[in-house]
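On clarity, I found the account of how folds are encoded harder to follow than it need be. Since the whole study asks how a given chain folds, the encoding of that fold should be made plain. For illustration, here is how one protein appears when written out as sequence plus structure tokens:

:::
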Amino acid sequence: METVDFGILSMIPPVLTIILALSTREVISSLFVGILSGAAIYAVRVNAGFLGIFKIIFNLMAHALEKNMLIIIFISILGALIYVITMSGGTHAYGKWAANKIKSRRNVQLATAFLGFVMSIDDYFDCLAVGTVMKPISDKHKISRAKFAYIIDSMAAPVCVIAPMSSWAASISSCMDSAGLNGMVTFIKTIPYNFYAILTIILVVILACTKLDFGAMAKFEKNAIETGDIFTTEFRPENEELSKTEVSKNGKIIDLILPISILMATSIFMMAETGGFFEGVPLMQALGKGNSGLSITIGALFALVISFIMFIPRKLMSFKKFMGGVSKGVESMVVPFVILALAWTMSDTCQELLNTGNYIGDLVEASNIPFKFMPAIIFAASGFLSLSMGTSWGTFSILIPIVTMICQKTAPDMTVIALSATLAGAVFGDHCSPISDTMILSAAGAGCNHIDHVTTQIPYSVLIAVISFAGYITLGVTGSFIISFGAAVLGLIGCLGFLKYVKIKGKDLSNLFNKSKKN
């Protein structure tokens, strides 16, 4: 299907989807309606007829699934791995060990954040693996699933986007290479200027060490602490049946640690191998060029095979129960599969049919704003595009060539800063969009309702985005990293200081940035 320029009409599907998702709290139907609207707009323009609308939808969906089949396979295998590790007693053993070592809510949250940092080779893997490992101990310390999902999400994409050894670095550097830049070198230079990612990580640490939750999150945390209700809403995830599964009493911590370690080590090895490391390509360059989807899928398969070798001979479970666990683990991922398939289809609707990304990119390019304000404008445009399409990768793949071209024509010395703002905005939009794949997987990994995760995370994301926007304005005006980043950090401290003052005065922090009705 040929891409057609629809101008402002191209914004209808993502905006409609976001409005429906937030108002109905039901993401699957909202996504489908958004896709339907986009297909209808396209069908009218090309005279495809009524039946053509549905042909367009399902052809797009088939194409999206074909492109992302390795991710589907990876999530399937990882779901199976999670289930059999739980059945082996490995997760339970780790929970008992962690209960003796980690004795406070603060330390559990910090441990979750640290684990997310360590596992930042890929955001998909990060979201699901950290949730699997830390969920039992998080529940024991009455951390709401919404807060748990926020920590996982905030230590996934924001860490991956500044981690040279990650699948994100591979994709970003390849986009920069295509734009005529030295990809990996330029990517590394953008890291200090990625204000949104760095400030998000700082905020996670601060919130873990304090009780300054605000917005909708304050209500979820209050209920978890005072009543033990870690969900607050009526949602109870179907995969909580894992807790009801027959678990071996002979499981050891190694039954959890070794399979996860094999997954990580194999994934890194395969990224190096597929990137040409054993053919003489330098390690960092090989990791940047490696096939991350294939690598993490092979890593997950190796981890599952190692689990089989570890569990069956020791009689932690029978062969039949192991294979039954594999089947149930895959089944537990069906809802994320459906949501991801629709999210990918929505992304393709915007990119391949309606040209939404180029419409927004052209608006940025055609603006006559003084260039000293361009990093802030690019950050806002990138965030809006990512929010609309639900994809960070789609956003920077569209904007990196445009931003590079603008900078090379007008201010080459601002290229790194402008690209940093592009990456930061892409992650911000990803953190707010109900149709974001990392949003979906963070909620799935944490066992949290998807819309609960969205509504509780948005106030935190918006706060950091506003501070980052101000930081980019300061950077454009002063040209000083130290002054701009220092101002951003002081801005964050000032906002949190205000929240502490409000709390001391006895105000309800759940009302801040939250227009929803009280229970």
User: Anything to note?
Assistant: Residues 216 and 456 are 5 Å apart (CA to CA). Residues 515-519 have pLDDT under 50 and may be disordered.
